[in-house]
Amino acid sequence: MATTASQAPLAPRASTAPTFAVLARRAAAALAGAAVLCAAGAPVAAADSAAPAAQASKLPDGLYGTKDPQYDGVWRQSLALLAQRTVGVRPSVTGVDWLAGQQCSDGAFSAYRADPAKACDDKTMRDTNQTGAAVQALAALGGHDDAVQKAVKWLKSVQNDDGGWPSTGGSPSDANSTSVVIGALKAAGEKPESVQKGGKSPYDALVTFQLGCDAKEGERGAFAFQPKDGKLAPNADATAAAVLGGLGDGFVVDPAGKDVNEPVKPLKCDGEAADKDAGRDPKQAAEGGAAYLAAVLGANGQHLKSAMPGAEDQPDVGNTADAVVALAAGSHGAAAQAPLKWLEKNSANWAKEAGPAAYAQLVLAAHAAGADPRSFGGADLVAQLNATGPKPAGSSAPSATPEKDAQDQDDQNSGVWWIFGIVFVASVGAGFLLSGRRKKSDI
Which stretches does UniProt call biased (Basic and acidic residues) (predicted)? Predict the structure, then answer.
């Protein structure tokens, strides 16, 4: 859960998001292709270069959060709506309509379009992380099949020859973006292994980002964001995203209770195993990634550390939440409990500053680990998330008929909160809103 925020993405994944073509799931990146650190579990989010920043006087009707949405509007909206749906909250129709209205006619989403009535053009920076997040949210909410299928068609059109995806078309594939798209394909009813380019599937691309038996012992099983100078460097954010991608999961995973205790299994590097890195099964790769995360969490006091320059000794709350989701997805419920307890004690200030994507990320982490997001370290995460956007239409247990839920929203929508906020100029911190997919590729 990627990225990208903590976000990125899987990004993030709400505490942060993708880059500037990769906002780190969690900082703002330079549009000229510089990668930016993301602060929360988000994908690498690209900004819509043609869209001006939101006016300080008033943000768009239906949008979650009070900060400038230029770099993470669709990402944070998608995670907020998805988290609400997951815990039985029916979002406001206004909020859902805002997200659906951000889609370009070709099916893609950018980070934010200030004027949805203005058609997307060649200057509109389309982003796979934002699109993948929107697909997961709209598919879960139901009633938006056409939008979902158009988005999936666009995602397929920008798949790289290695089978993976970058945050923006024409760039090299990365682990976070590929994982977010895998989650989107599954949410849309597709079989990711069948979505191929050049004879390569997303899973073929994903395993190439994993550090294998030729890496240092403590780094084996980790995933890199993408190679740099032909070398792979372990990246906890990319690893959390890739674990979900390798398992074929999206941002939402079925709860794994504390009694679910499948032991994590590090990569086997004895005998012939060392010669089989290239043909590793994606689920086996995900297992190796989960083992790496569990080891790093244990060594750091049950949290991950920031990869932002100058803050390497600081906890990364968003990526820790992503790691909890990743461990739970692999049925390592017991291993997820200690970092979950750490989040209960240490996430409140971070979430308050980061906003809706962060609250959503924590809701999804609590849900995945079998905890109650309405009683999380003394806080009601669901109420806090709801307060960042338009008033929900209602509340009920999620059903197997999302189309009916969508109709219920229309029937029960009770209104919208106008959101006023001060524009947050993202020179160094925009990625903090995206969920963790914005890590620099060399971190």
Answer: 263-284
Domain count, the chain: 1
| Residue 346, token pair as written in the block | 């240490």
- d(Cα 273, Cα 275) in Å, to the nearest integer? 5
Indicate the pLDDT class of residue 396, thresholds 50, 70 and 90: low
Q: In the chain, what percentage of residues exceed pLDDT 90?
A: 67
Please report the pLDDT score of residue 277 as a whole number: 53
Does the residue 183 lie in any domain? yes
32 belongs to a structural domain: no
Q: Does any domain span residue 342? A: yes
Q: Please give the Cα distance from 14 to 7 (Å, whole number).
A: 6
Distance CA 127, CA 41 (A): 16
CATH of the domain at 392: 1.50.10.20
